[in-house]
Design goal:
three-stranded antiparallel sheet; 39 helices; single chain; elongated; mainly alpha; seven-stranded mixed sheet; 778 residues
């Protein structure tokens, strides 16, 4: 360490002479001190030569090189100012050191401190630093330093002229530039930037934005900026950093860690340290967060220790908000100056950053937010629930439903969380966002859910959306029990509908309960769409087709506005009605609408969407769109497996429709497997007479196909099926080839294979056999 009156200024030559005392450069060369300044005042014994702001960190900033950023800096020689602005731990100084090592120009380094806000002190510091790299005569620079006290304005003017007249390009690095706040000091630096000759630059490393004329420099392309997003590490860089720190990560761990730390080098290194210290590194990485003691200590020392207590309180209390704004923080924290505080703190601590161009909304770095929440739990544990509650109120009244629920759940407020989830359940459950509901519910115990009717009914709806009928009925029963002797019409109706889905007392009883529940739930509720779906399906399977059609069309209309997940099942049920009427054009339109909605909303992975794919597969197979039908058969089959004790009538419908499609696609083994699982409708108590007829017809068709083949079914390929669809037409083989974009010889080959497999000797006989076995319509 330098003596009491000694200050380090670091100079490097074009040949790469080093300039950081006691350290190693990224390129492995030695570092040396240069030009100690015997300043008159001895009041700054801890000024650091070449001051690396991150030097107090664990040395992570020297482990990984940044060649792309260095190339950007070298290529920007026309820029007068290179501004590297990022919070602690991003390796700002290390980047500049690496740049120095790769650039042919000489670099002069000056570590600033608060005393440099005195322009005279700053001039005296700059003179010897610049003397080592400019072409200005040393006696002139000595004269400037000597005259600084007697004639400050003259010394400043002569320093500017000396910089302007230097014929040798150079780079002046001003480290720890965030300490400069005095207008006179900033004005001097700004003037020197303007005075630089061609090829010379000033590089400033700062933790905060500086009050410099960057707007004008940016407009004239005289500025290059390196920001946190640029300094954040990529996965490959993070892998190298953690490996050098002694920890090997697999690709998934690396992806998650980079996302969690947002590429912050210090965070990555500290995570590696945490993993290295534990007996179970994988578990340590999985639980790594901003409240880890290494991270918390680092952030506390680097960012919080210099703040006023009121600012620390503001940061800790507001950190539970993901997206901050003045009005939001005013409401949650019960104050009136949040917008001003946010703007000020964002300029002094860049781990709080604006996320728009008007400085209206802000966000904390994820690790910083986690650390601050830990501070809140330790400092003011009683405040946490209250703040979450107020945040929930704010978002509920400003359209932020998901965040309102988040904060209600975080506050442990069962009643409020239940009310919000009940009110907005369809926005999640019926829109393909059921995973969010399941995460919220997982924060409560089974006893808490069962004791809160709206929460229990939300759990029931969520379970239905996953295809788990048993769990859905259990939660509906819990909701009814919790209501006791004072049931609410809406709650009672919803519970009745969930219980009715299973059709435990037959399909007719399901329809009756759905009709009664329809009257109990509010007119605008999504539960009315559910009621019409169940009543319509009941009527269809019991043979009351016109009533079924009316109910299902209403259900589809209501579902389009409130519950797309219900709408698509209503449309699929209408497809089955159209198929019975042999209205294949109408069936095609309805199936296409249902599939498009499934894709648009993201319901493709929801087990109750199985009927959409099953009905679509049957229509597409009938229309000869073989590949599309096969895809729907695969999708329906995969979703059927995930239905766990779901509505038995629905399971039978899906199986029969998919089996009929499989038969048309010459997949008899799959059809047999599907039909074997459709048994509920055969029970007399089911009342599903129509489904029973479907099942009997499908089995008969399958047996006919087996008899025709004699060994268990057909084995027509996809290409052969496509040719078969066109054999009943007047088209010749060359014309069929033109339709299918293949050669005439290919069509002949496929046709002969069809004749052989159907035991036919001619085209006409093959068509007759295909119609007899259900491969073609009569």
């Amino acid at each position: 360490m330098a003596g009491m009156g000694e200050r380090w200024m670091l100079v490097s030559s074009p040949t790469g002479q080093a300039r950081l005392p006691g350290c190693s450069r990224p390129d492995g060369s030695a570092m040396a001190k240069a030009l100690p300044n015997s300043a008159e005042d001895g009041s700054h014994p801890h000024r650091r030569g070449g001051a690396v702001p991150e030097r107090r960190s664990p040395g992570f900033d020297e482990l990984v090189r940044r060649p792309q950023l260095v190339r950007r800096l070298i290529a920007a020689r026309s820029a007068s100012l290179a501004l590297v602005v990022a919070p602690a731990g991003y390796g700002k100084t290390s980047l500049l050191v690496e740049w120095d090592a790769r650039d042919e120009r000489p670099f002069a380094w000056l570590a600033l401190d608060d005393a440099d806000n005195d322009p005279l002190r700053l001039i005296r510091s700059l003179v010897p630093t610049l003397g080592a790299v400019t072409s200005v005569r040393q006696e002139l620079l000595d004269a400037i330093a000597a005259d600084a006290d007697r004639d400050p304005a003259g010394a400043r003017a002569r320093l500017r002229r000396a910089v302007r007249e230097s014929r040798r390009p150079f780079v002046l690095v001003l480290d720890d530039a965030q300490v400069l706040h005095a207008p006179e000091a900033l004005e001097l630096v700004g003037a020197l930037i303007v005075d630089l000759g061609p090829g010379s630059q000033i590089a400033m490393a700062s933790r905060t934005r500086l009050d410099l004329p960057v707007g004008r420099l940016r407009a004239h392309r005289k500025l290059i900026e390196i920001r946190p997003a640029d300094l954040g590490m990529t996965r490959s860089q993070a892998a190298l950093l953690t490996r050098l720190a002694g920890v090997e990560l697999d690709p998934d761990q690396l992806r998650d860690l980079v996302a969690h730390t947002e590429g912050w080098p210090a965070g990555l290194y500290l995570a590696a340290l945490a993993a290295r210290e534990e007996t179970d590194p994988d578990r340590a990485l999985a639980h790594f967060a901003g409240d880890d003691r290494h991270v918390a200590d680092y952030l506390r020392e680097e960012l919080l220790d210099g703040l006023r207590p009121g600012d620390v309180e503001f940061l800790a209390r507001s950190a539970l908000l993901e997206r901050l704004s003045g009005p939001l923080c005013d409401f949650v924290l019960e104050r009136h100056d949040s917008a001003r505080v946010l703007r000020r703190l964002s300029r002094t601590n860049l781990l709080l950053e604006p996320i728009d161009r008007t400085d209206t909304h802000y966000r904390y770095h994820r690790l910083f937010a986690e650390m601050l929440r830990g501070e809140l739990r330790h400092r003011e544990p009683e405040q946490e629930r209250m703040l979450h509650g107020r945040a929930s109120d704010w978002y509920a009244h400003h359209g932020g439903t998901a965040l309102a629920i988040d904060h209600a759940v975080a506050a442990g407020d069962v009643r409020r969380a239940g009310d919000l989830l009940w009110e907005h359940a369809s926005e999640f459950v019926a829109y393909g966002r059921n995973d969010a509901v399941r995460r919220w519910l997982a924060r409560f115990s089974d006893e808490q859910i069962a004791g809160c009717p709206p929460l229990a009914l939300t759990a029931a709806a969520s379970r239905l959306a996953t295809g788990n009928g048993t769990a859905a009925e259990r939660w509906a029963s819990a909701a009814s029990s919790a209501l006791g002797d004072a049931p609410s019409g809406a709650f009672e109706g919803a519970a009745l509908l969930v219980s009715a889905v299973g059709a435990r007392e037959g399909i007719v009883r399901m329809g009756e309960e759905a009709a009664r529940a329809y009257e109990q739930v509010p007119d605008g509720s999504w539960w009315r769409a559910v009621a019409r779906l169940l009543e319509g399906a009941s009527a269809h399977l019991a043979g009351r087709r016109e009533h079924a059609r009316a109910c299902l069309e209403e259900g589809a209309r209501r579902g389009a506005a409130t519950a797309p997940g219900i709408q698509v099942v209503c449309l699929a049920q209408l497809v089955l009605l159209a198929i019975e009427r042999e209205d294949w054009g109408g069936a095609e339109v309805l199936a296409a609408r249902a599939r498009a909605q499934v894709e648009r909303i993201g319901l493709g992975d929801c087990p109750p969407s199985a009927l959409v794919h099953a009905a679509s597969a049957e229509v597409l197979a009938r229309l000869g769109r073989v590949e599309e039908s096969q895809r729907d058969v695969q999708a329906a089959s995969a979703l059927l497996v995930r239905l766990s004790d779901f509505a038995p009538w629905y399971d039978d419908e899906c199986r029969i429709a998919t089996a009929r499609a499989a038969l048309r696609l010459s997949d008899a083994p799959r059809a047999r497997q599907l039909l074997a699982g459709a048994s509920w409708c055969r029970q007399p108590a089911s009342g599903a007479t129509v489904a029973r007829e479907w099942l009997d017809d499908a089995w008969a068709q399958l047996e006919l196909a087996v008899d025709c083949r004699g060994n268990g079914g057909w084995s027509l390929t996809t290409a052969e099926l496509r040719v078969l669809q066109l054999l009943p037409t007047h088209l010749s083989f060359p014309e069929i080839a033109g339709r299918l974009y293949v050669s005439a010889n290919t069509v002949k080959t496929h046709a002969r294979a069809v004749y052989r497999k159907l035991d036919a000797s001619s085209r006409g006989e093959a068509v007759v056999r295909a119609r007899e076995t259900g491969l073609l319509d009569s």
